[in-house]
Backbone:
């Protein structure tokens, strides 16, 4: 409503989208430190393999590369969803949101498969500090992806139910920020955990 | 949409809601602030009783008031309670209530998230406290050093602690995000960052400190919890883990946390001293920037808690230097406060006495803090009563005195009534004398070789006299706090009417009624200067002296307009309750998993209902 | 607004005077001969710390007096006068002054930093071969200390014997949780961290007894985890070592012989007695600045020369027959412990269990322990 009265009170009726974006940026700043601590723990412990298998024994880099690629692609579909939202093409936006979440689910399935394999090969959370820190880092990332999938689906559902009104609830942009962040973090994790095995 | 009538802006809210349900579902930042305050005062009494039991046990050599087990629970819970359930939420109470008022805003950025923060804090506090009644409270120290904290359950009960701190951290991160967004996007027109009141500034700095420090301890707490319950090896030396990692993660949070506790008090004092000296804060920009500097440097000094851990002389030397130099911005603030009083017209009311007491006591804590940076000397002081003396001068003499100053200062705004001055002064002097009698002797005890966290001491070590003095002091201190409670209760019922501006205040919260209306301001103020309200009342004469304005100041405040206040919501409290159930289940894995699953369902139900519910409901 | 009332301001002054008196009393307490006093150093390492402390202390006292006086003066001098018109000058700041009081602390701190840094490196130096340092391994346990003398092949518990005037270089580690070794009169404290080795140098100027106790919270009986250092003249120390190197024996006759029969059944699961069949240790490793060191660790205090000790139970109880009787009847009555949680296979020992010994069995055991001088 108050759009016409804003002239004298500029800044007092802030755009709810700007507020949510600000909040999301602040939250992601916090997340950087969270993943930073997890990655630091892993770097400290990655050579402490005790009697269990080490990185070179169990990692299947080609497999994880493919699931990483899937997750990267989901950033693309997220951009498309955001783009569609910008054009107020709600139907297409929902399609891309669902596509993004499906890619996220594929990634999570890959992670579940990978964990099962590793356990079979003798790496559990209590095998070695390497095992403890590997599972802690990657499963917390997986939990973030899972929460992202829930947020994407909820956003699509709300849009479908006509509840996604501008200025209320989650918006596509904030969810997108979160999703891209989770992707970027994975690139770091993939590099540090899987590629840097020297 | 209602039509405007002159002078009374149309509200989309009905009349003020009453009753318990209205408080539980409230999204009004002022009510949430009051809830924070009352809950924190309750925990202040709980933590105080724990402290008194500790002091009674130590009054004489080989005391028999508490068993070793009970004593270990008491000091663990005393610290955990005072840090996470008293000082932080008291600061949050002021921040909730006064940040929007000082910024000229109608609420915080996310009112329902604000309610969620409070209820997570509330249930987190209950979760920690309930442990006393279900087999014993946490007893591994508030700092939970691994691998003691990861020993099996019968040895140390630390699951309640690990999960409780985790969930309180979630509440703090949520409110930090909220406050940061509020400050960055909701300031009144003309309220530039540099015109922002110092208390609001310190709230912003604290929000950033929490945002960046909590995630590090969160990771550590997960590691402790998993070491205890899943058999991970993070801190198990025999399995290849390193206990020192926990110390890094804990103190990377723990030291910024010290500034989280003290900066709000510094902000309060920076409001109180100018008001009761009738002068602007001396070197305001310096004070703000030194606060920011403390915030940044606070992340670079954590290892001074680890000078006996064995970091090696190079690291010890480096952290000695950073620790010394964080004293500089702190010292700057003290001199600026002195400069504020200097040449003023100082009123000795209770609020001002607590602010002056804050400076007097904080100087002691600051100086003893510098002695910790002298690594060799710290190797004697570390984990001795000297350290206990130091941080009580900072956290009791500093944080609590600052907060009490704030309570006497803002109570009239919140309740519409002044806190009694006679009892107020008794309150101050008893606390001031009691505090010094309690904590000053602890310097001596520590230097004479008494370690912390010991439930008894033998005769002939020379600890008897000072321990007895400290216990007597703690009783005086407790009596002072009791007088405060009496005073607050009496004043709330029959205190003198305050009016909107009892102190001739300087900042925007004094422009609105006491207590403020639900929408805070009838018209959104337009800010034209630092201490804007003061400048609406006073001009300066040729010599720069304050003279009351005779002219009417033309201010371009916002127009009367429709005000959409957030509707009450049941979903935040429901979500928080779901988290509480989840945690209770996690303590009792494996069978507790069922409860946890139920808790997760409740939480998701709450969050789903929340996202489907409009912020402002139709039909109001 | 009520006027500032003079009596209250005066009371404030009185309180500060009282505080000063208290601090003066405190200063007086520094000089008294307390057995665990960091301000009464008895060796060069502790003295270096003490010298540094007093330097910083007096600087701090000067700052304290200046700032608190300025505060009291300003509050009094500028208190609101009766009938004041409150028209005070609105001073917003003074950049020159503010820069000045930023620089002054920097300069003071820089002055303190110099001796601090040099003392840090001095105290942390490794003794050279010319110092002929006595090396001792210190292993923390819940809740007692194990002292190994690799040079002499002997081991004690809770009581550390050293020669006067000789550099003693301690290697500290822990068998369970983090402990901290602290003898305030000889040096600052140093943590015993599981999986790591830390070092501490102690030197005693003169023969004497120096008390200390664990300074890092280590669980239930942290308060009762004490230790003491006995410094001897070189000759006395050599005599003590020779005595300790003697193995114990298994008495076959008399009360002590009965005691041994009980001991063999009840006590040898945890206690070592050199020269007898009581032999139980476990091995562990710890990182000493990048080098992995192995330690043979006892499960419970070595009792080879128990009779020669002045204390037991974490140096918390005098070694008398009465105390021993109470201890053997139920150890947890004297010192809080949770032996029901012991798991020797996991290396977890949390105290001595109550074995339900009869009075005559206890007398026999006491007789045995007194035999092992």
Residues:
């Amino acid at each position: 409503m108050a759009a016409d009265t804003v002239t004298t009170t500029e800044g007092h009726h802030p755009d709810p989208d700007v507020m949510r974006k600000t909040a999301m940026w602040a939250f992601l700043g916090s997340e950087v430190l969270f993943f930073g601590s997890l990655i630091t723990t892993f770097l400290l412990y990655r050579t402490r393999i005790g009697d269990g298998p080490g990185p070179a024994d169990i990692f299947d880099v080609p497999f994880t590369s493919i699931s990483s690629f899937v997750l990267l692609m989901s950033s693309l579909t997220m951009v498309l969803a955001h783009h569609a939202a910008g054009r107020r093409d709600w139907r297409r936006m929902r399609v891309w949101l669902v596509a993004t979440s499906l890619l996220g689910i594929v990634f999570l399935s890959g992670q579940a498969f990978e964990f099962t394999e590793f356990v079979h090969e003798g790496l559990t959370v209590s095998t070695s500090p390497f095992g403890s820190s590997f599972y802690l880092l990657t499963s917390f990332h997986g939990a973030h992806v899972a929460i992202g999938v829930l947020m994407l689906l909820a956003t699509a559902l709300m849009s479908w139910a006509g509840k996604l009104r501008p200025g209320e609830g989650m918006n596509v942009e904030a969810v997108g920020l979160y999703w891209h962040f989770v992707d970027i973090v994975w690139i770091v994790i993939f590099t540090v955990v899987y590629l840097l095995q020297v | 949409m209602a039509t405007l009538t002159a002078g009374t802006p149309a509200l989309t809210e009905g009349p003020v809601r009453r009753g318990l349900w209205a408080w539980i579902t409230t999204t009004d930042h002022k009510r949430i602030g009051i809830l924070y305050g009352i809950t924190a005062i309750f925990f202040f009494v709980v933590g105080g009783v724990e402290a008194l039991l500790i002091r009674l046990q130590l009054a004489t050599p080989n005391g028999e008031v508490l068993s070793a087990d009970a004593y270990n629970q008491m000091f663990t819970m005393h610290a955990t309670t005072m840090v996470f359930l008293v000082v932080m939420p008291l600061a949050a109470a002021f921040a909730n209530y006064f940040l929007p008022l000082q910024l000229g805003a109608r609420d915080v950025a996310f009112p329902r998230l604000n309610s969620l923060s409070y209820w997570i804090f509330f249930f987190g506090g209950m979760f920690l406290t309930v442990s006393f009644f279900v087999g014993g409270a946490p007893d591994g120290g508030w700092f939970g050093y691994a691998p003691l904290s990861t020993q099996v359950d019968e040895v140390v009960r630390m699951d309640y602690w690990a999960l409780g701190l985790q969930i309180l951290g979630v509440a703090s991160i949520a409110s930090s995000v909220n406050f940061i967004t509020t400050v960055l996007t909701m300031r009144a027109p003309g309220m530039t960052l540099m015109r922002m009141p110092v208390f609001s500034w310190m709230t912003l700095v604290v929000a950033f400190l929490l945002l960046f420090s909590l995630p590090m301890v969160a990771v550590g707490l997960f590691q402790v919890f998993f070491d205890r319950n899943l058999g991970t090896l993070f801190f198990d030396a025999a399995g290849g883990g390193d206990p020192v990692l926990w110390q890094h993660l804990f103190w990377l949070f723990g030291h910024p946390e010290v500034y989280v506790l003290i900066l709000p008090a510094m902000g309060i004092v920076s409001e109180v001293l100018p008001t009761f000296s009738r002068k602007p804060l001396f070197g305001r920009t310096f004070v703000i920037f030194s606060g920011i500097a403390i915030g940044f440097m606070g992340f670079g000094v954590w290892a001074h808690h680890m000078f006996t851990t064995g970091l090696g002389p190079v690291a010890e030397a480096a952290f000695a230097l950073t620790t010394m130099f964080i004293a500089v911005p702190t010292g700057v603030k003290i001199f600026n406060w002195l400069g504020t009083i200097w040449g003023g017209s100082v009123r000795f009311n209770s609020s001002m006495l607590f602010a002056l007491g804050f400076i007097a006591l904080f100087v002691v804590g600051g100086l003893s803090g510098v002695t910790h940076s002298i690594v060799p000397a710290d190797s004697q002081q570390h984990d001795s009563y000297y350290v206990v003396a130091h941080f009580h001068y900072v956290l009791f003499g500093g944080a609590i005195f600052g907060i009490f100053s704030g309570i006497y200062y803002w109570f009239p705004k919140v309740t519409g009534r002044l806190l009694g001055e006679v009892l107020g002064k008794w309150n101050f002097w008893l606390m001031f004398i009691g505090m010094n009698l309690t904590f000053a002797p602890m310097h001596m005890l520590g230097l004479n070789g008494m370690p912390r966290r010991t439930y008894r001491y033998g005769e002939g070590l020379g600890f008897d006299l000072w321990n007895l003095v400290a216990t007597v002091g703690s009783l005086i201190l407790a009596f002072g706090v009791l007088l405060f409670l009496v005073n607050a209760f009496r004043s709330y019922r029959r205190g003198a009417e305050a009016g909107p501006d009892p102190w001739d205040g300087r900042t925007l919260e004094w422009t609105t009624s006491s207590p403020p209306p639900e929408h805070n301001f009838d018209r959104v103020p337009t800010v034209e200067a630092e201490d804007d309200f003061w400048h609406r009342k006073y001009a300066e004469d040729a010599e720069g002296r304050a003279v009351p304005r005779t002219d009417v100041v033309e201010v371009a405040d916002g127009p009367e307009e429709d005000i959409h206040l957030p509707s009450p919501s049941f979903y935040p409290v429901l979500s928080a309750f779901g988290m509480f159930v989840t945690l209770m289940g996690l303590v009792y894995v494996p069978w507790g998993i069922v409860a946890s699953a139920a808790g997760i369902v409740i939480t998701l139900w709450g969050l789903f209902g929340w996202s489907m519910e409009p912020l402002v409901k139709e039909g109001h | 607004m009520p006027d500032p009332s003079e009596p209250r301001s005066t009371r404030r002054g009185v309180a500060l005077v009282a505080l000063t008196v208290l601090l003066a009393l405190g200063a007086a307490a520094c000089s008294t001969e307390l057995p665990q006093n960091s301000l009464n150093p008895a060796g060069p390492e502790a003295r270096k710390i003490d010298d540094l402390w007093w330097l910083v202390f007096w600087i701090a006292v000067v700052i304290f007096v200046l700032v608190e006086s300025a505060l009291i003066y300003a509050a009094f001098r500028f208190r609101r006068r009766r009938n004041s018109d409150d028209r005070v000058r609105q001073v917003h700041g003074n950049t020159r002054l503010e820069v000045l009081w930023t620089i002054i602390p920097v300069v003071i701190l820089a002055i303190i930093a110099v001796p601090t840094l040099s003392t840090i490196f001095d105290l942390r130096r490794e003794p050279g071969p010319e110092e002929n340092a006595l090396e001792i391994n210190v292993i923390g346990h819940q809740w007692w200390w194990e002292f190994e003398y690799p040079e002499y092949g002997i081991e004690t518990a809770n009581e550390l014997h050293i020669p006067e005037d000789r550099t003693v270089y301690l290697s500290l580690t822990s068998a369970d949780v983090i402990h901290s070794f602290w003898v305030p009169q000889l040096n600052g404290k140093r943590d015993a961290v599981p999986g790591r080795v830390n070092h501490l140098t102690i030197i005693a100027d003169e023969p004497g007894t120096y008390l200390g106790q664990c300074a890092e919270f280590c669980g239930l009986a942290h308060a009762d985890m004490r230790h003491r250092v006995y410094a001897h003249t070189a000759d006395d120390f050599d005599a003590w070592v020779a005595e300790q190197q003697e193995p114990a024996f298994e008495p076959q006759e008399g009360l002590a012989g009965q005691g041994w029969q009980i001991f063999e059944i009840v006590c040898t699961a945890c206690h070592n007695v050199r020269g007898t069949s009581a032999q139980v240790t476990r091995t562990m490793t710890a990182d000493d600045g990048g080098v992995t060191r192995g330690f043979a660790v006892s499960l419970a205090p070595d009792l080879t020369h128990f009779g020669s000790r002045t204390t037991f139970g974490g140096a918390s109880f005098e070694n008398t027959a009465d105390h021993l009787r109470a201890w053997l009847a139920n150890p947890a009555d004297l010192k809080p412990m949770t032996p029901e949680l012991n798991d020797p296979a996991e290396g977890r020992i949390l105290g001595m269990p109550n074995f339900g010994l009869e009075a005559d069995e206890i007398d026999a055991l006491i007789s045995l322990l007194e035999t092992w001088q």
The radius of gyration of chain A is 20 Å. Chain A touches chain B at residues 1-2, 5, 8-12, 14, 18-19, 22-23, 26-27, 29-31, 33-34, 36-38, 41, 44-45, 48, 50, 125-126, 128-129, 131-133, 135-136, 140, 154, 158, 163, 165, 168-170 (CB under 8 Å). Residues 154 and 170 of chain A are 9 Å apart (CA to CA). Helices of chain A lie at 16-45, 55-58, 61-86, 90-120, 129-160, 172-195.
